[in-house]
UniProtKB/TrEMBL annotation:
It holds the Pfam family Dynein_light. The keyword ATP-binding does not apply. One of its GO terms (cellular component) is axoneme. InterPro entries: DLC_sf, Dynein_light_chain_typ-1/2. Its main location: cytoplasm. This is Dynein axonemal light chain 4. It comes from Stichopus japonicus. It is found in: Cytoplasm, Cytoskeleton, Cilium axoneme. Residues 1-31 are annotated as: Disordered. Force generating protein of respiratory cilia. Produces force towards the minus ends of microtubules. Dynein has ATPase activity. Gene3D superfamilies: Protein Inhibitor Of Neuronal Nitric Oxide Synthase.
């Protein structure tokens, strides 16, 4: 019985993380095409390097620098509070 409860708890946490793992844009001055490409890149990097945020951020930054010109900054973190 305890194992079932533990399994359900882990399943709920996984579902919650999945809901919170995709980008939400509140404001952007990027054009639509650039914004879409950036979101797709972020999702791809975070899925590919789900256990290594630093590597995901590095992939995002390097790709953005090559594609759109230098001086992009990327931060990938497990928990970010927007209060």
């Amino acid at each position: 019985m305890e194992d079932q409860q533990e399994g359900k708890k882990e399943e709920k946490e996984t579902d919650y993380r999945r809901l919170q793992s995709y980008p939400l844009i509140r404001h952007s001055d990027m054009n639509e095409e650039m914004r879409t490409e950036t979101m797709e890149l972020c999702v791809t990097a975070c899925e590919k390097f789900s256990n290594n945020n630093e590597t995901a951020a590095k992939m995002i930054k390097e790709t953005m620098d090559k594609k759109f010109g230098a001086s992009w900054h990327a931060v990938v973190a497990k928990d970010m509070d927007s209060k």
